[in-house]
Write a structure and sequence with these properties.
Keywords: Cell membrane, Membrane, Transmembrane, Transmembrane helix. The chain is an alpha+beta fold and about 775 residues long. Helices cover about 60% and strands about 10% of the residues.
Amino acid sequence: MPLRKLSYSVLLVLALISALSVYFVAQLRFNYNFNDFYPAGDPDLDYYQQYSGRFGNDNDYVLLGLEAPAGRTVFEPRFLTRVDSLTRFIQARPHVVHVTSPTNATNPVVEGLGVFNIPYLHPQEPERRAQDSALVYRTPGLVGNLIAKDARAVTILLQTSPNLSKPPGDSLLAAVRTELSRQGFAEADYHLAGKLVAQSVFVDRLQRELMVFMSLSVVLVTGLLWFTFRTWWGVVLPLVVVLGAILWGLGLMSACGVSIDLMTALLPVMLFVVGMSDTIHIITRYVTELGYGTSKRDSLVITLKESGFGSGLSALTTSIGFFTLMTSTIRPIYNFGLFTGIAVLLTFVLSFTLLPAMLMLLRKPQLRIPRAEGHSWDGVLGRMFRTVLARRQWVVAISALLLIGSVASASRIRINSALLDDLSKNDPVKLDFRFFENHFAGVRPFEMDIKPAPGRSIYDLQVLRQTEQIENYLTKEYGLNFVASPVTLVKSVRKAFNGGLLEEYRLPESDAELKRLVSKIKLFRKKPEFRALVLPDASEGRVTGRMPDVGSIRADKLNADLRQFLRQHNDSTVLHTRLTGSANLIDKNNENLTLNMITGMSIDIVMVTLIVLALFRSLRMTLVVLIPNLVPILIVAGVMGLAGVHMKVSTSIIFTIAFGIAVDDTIHFISKLKLTLLKERSLFRAVRKTYLMAGKAVIVTSLILVGGFSTLIFSSFDGTFYVGLLIGLTLLFGVVAELTLLPILILAFYKHRPKEIRQPVPALGG
């Protein structure tokens, strides 16, 4: 079949596949589900899912903080009236299960056969203001939870439907904000926090940032392509190939039912900059052959034969770098690694089908006449090559010093994460969350499942006393600013049956008294706080609370101390306890981060080693390939340690991705050297010729990669910022190592053994 006819057939097939991809991409949705970041397959996750099925999720709430007018307190009748009106409005909203507010908090009192819920606050009776405020400050659980210690702000807690998705969640938040405005609350006077708020903000920002990053990448890459090739087709054809691969990758992701989240949002940008490598190597080699006077057809055939081998290997190593992320137990990272790895392979397919077809159908391009002394790049690269070899001792010495310093600095890296890790310190959402840290109990939830030993009930006096002992530890030593448990219920009921007197808020002193109280608890079982803390059959209970977001390092220390306390002071023949909850699961991710990162890097290094061994059957060449690519990784690890950047979910992917991408240029260089040595007998001349042939493509692709990843530094998410910055730095250091260490290592290791490199090219190369 003639090449032109074959090219048309290829374009038709690819167009049909692209049309199908467009259909699926149109159905792609953005999503930020907090639960997706739990460690999949972990026994603690299964336990929490069962636990939340009985007691509800610990993060299905929204905190609304309201500040009193300047110079006034929250006990001002007019302010309380607005708070009460707002409370009633929110309670009537769809998807709101329960609202806890200072104006609907009551002090239950049992008289005769009836239960009277006496409000703590009476906005319509100003004369009771002093009496109400005094009672509030004496009542446990109100100050620091619903009312700030300085009486300048209050909190309304909205308990929402389980796992509320973004559309109804956004509607609820919009309705609350509208009512706040109607009630006269300025934006500076109220604060919102909770999973629903973070979910709404994250998804909106993902959509906006994805468009910004892609736009910046397109502009940057277009400029670099024009600077390199100075022809319209040298710009348009690579863009068509890579955008087609992105379309296919996103279409496949949508077809598999995967949404765009905080991690997969990086796929288009990542693929856009990574996917340019093959097209640039192909076009550079194609233009070089045309410059030698070769026909368009022969130039294309030679290019595909010589580039196919190196490009195939580089696509393989890059995709492996992404596929190793599938070792992660965190679903968004797993999906990101899987679909980006597949998309890299799709880019390779399009580079060797779509790109040749388009080049074949285009007229032979008019090339610029090279200067008399040779191509403009040759002079620059020739001088670089001579300088590197003349200063080889300096290159090796500086590399060694940087390596030693980086390893020492990298030892300072710590694994640490917080609930809103990906937001910068001055982000408005984070400032709102910090408001609750500073004035109220905090936003980090605490959960402990408690089960009485066989033959006992939650309302057993010994069980309650041990639970109270745990409560005391949690408030005094652990750092909980608010805590509730079955003990809270029993104390509240005892107080209610003793006239609501605060001094009666304590556990019964005898089993007989407790038995009388338990028989009365059925009067309160319909109250939401009772259902949320004890199962109806009293076979299981819950200790729940909130505290500041102290970070995973501090939380791990607190949990270790808590477990030590429980081992020493909790009698397992009376009560069984188990830490659980969403915060506990997020902290557990840190236990897996180091293992996942080491596993991913190990797989990556082993696969690259096997590939090099299969090609060259030489351990020396393995070192030649690995050293220039591991040195930049270690230097960037040193930069992280020096800058105090913590290892967390978002930054844990940096090293495996960077290594997989950085090794590409080395593979291209070595594969070209292998081909050159079949024609050139001198190793030195072969290395120099390869340096001149591959140098331009290596520099251009590295500039595109560094520039493309640098667009991510404009992200409002810290994790995305560091992915862009640190991978960009790794690739920048990588191209320097490629152009300095690599030729030195080849000439040093193979000075007397060039035949070890000079092997027949595998069938992939033609």
